[in-house]
Amino acid sequence: MTVIPVGQSWHALEALARQLKEKVEEVFCPHCMKYVKPDIRLIPTFLDSILIEKLCPHCRTVLSTEYTQVRLPDRKPHLIKGGTYIAFEGIDGSGKTYYSKWLVEELKRRDYDVIYVKEPWVDAIKEFLYKHRIDPDAEVYIFAADRIILQTEEILPALEQNKIVVSDRSIFSSIAYQSARGVSEAFIWGVNRSIKVPEFVIILDVPVDVALKRIEGIGRAMTRFEDPEFLERVRRKFLEIAERYANISRFVVVDNSRPEEVVKKEILDHVLRYLEEKEKMAK
Ligand SMILES: Nc1ncnc2c1ncn2[C@@H]1O[C@H](COP(=O)(O)OP(=O)(O)O)[C@@H](O)[C@H]1O
Ligand SMILES: [Mg+2]
Q: Which pTM does this prediction carry?
């Protein structure tokens, strides 16, 4: 397996191409009707492989294709074992910001060491997303870049110091929103391959009309993500996620069409029970 060093991926690919080119044997090109020493083209794919194409240097016909395994840069966030990474998820107006900030205060009152973070994180990236309409696959890259910065600068250091991180959105927002815009989940996971996944996820579920009325109520400007039909698809995606990814995170779906006090009690019960369970397991 070839290891592509962090930050040198492109140079490493070129070096690999040169190396392969030196060793390559002549192949028959049926169009030029002669044996040729093929050119090598490397195409990175997701999930640890590179496509190697051998091309006729004269007519550019692809004479053969094969895959080789590589190891792409890996920040190994899964090696960080301390702390607790909790995320709130749900459609726009579902109550994420409200309850995540509230939960941070409740946990602080109970002497937990806790920080609040919010995706998207980097101001320049948020501005960019409001200014430009971009393809959904490009959106996947932009959100992943933002998430990598947030994790590297804030989340991973806090977990290393054994803190609780309460995050307003996470990788699962990318899965829900960008897949609702037609991007395959495999692609989204591929781009987010070195992202740490939250261990406990609270999905706030509300009907789209209720969420939109609440956004209106606070006079917040609608973004392009807040189209009712689209949000309906995203809401369903979140409910699917809670089932489908139960192997990688603990999910609870909380019905936030009920009064705040009822919802708060339910959230706090879930979180405190989870933290207690974790403490017990650590002993
Ligand atoms: N159960 C609830 N009942 C009434 N209003 C609520 C409830 N939960 C949240 N809200 C209100 O809905 C609005 C949108 O919540 P917010 O946290 O901004 O959503 P999000 O961050 O998910 O977009 C806020 O004004 C919040 O106070
Ligand atoms: Mg919010």
A: 0.80
